[in-house]
Specification:
elongated; Cbb3-type cytochrome oxidase assembly protein CcoS; 50 residues; mainly alpha; membrane
């Protein structure tokens, strides 16, 4: 039973850290251009040596 006193606050802390990381990513613009990265892999760029 005493392990629950350790695991429950640990789980809440990990959830808060994940939530803080998500809000930091939103604020820093990580999710601004979702289609750009998906389309960039489809672009066929020719290399200089060929």
């Amino acid at each position: 039973m005493s392990i629950l006193g350790f695991l429950i606050p640990l789980a809440l802390l990990m959830g808060l850290v994940g939530l803080a990381a998500f809000f930091w990513a939103m604020k820093s613009g990580q999710f601004e251009d979702l289609d750009g990265a998906a389309n960039r892999i489809l672009i066929d760029e020719e290399e200089d040596g060929q």
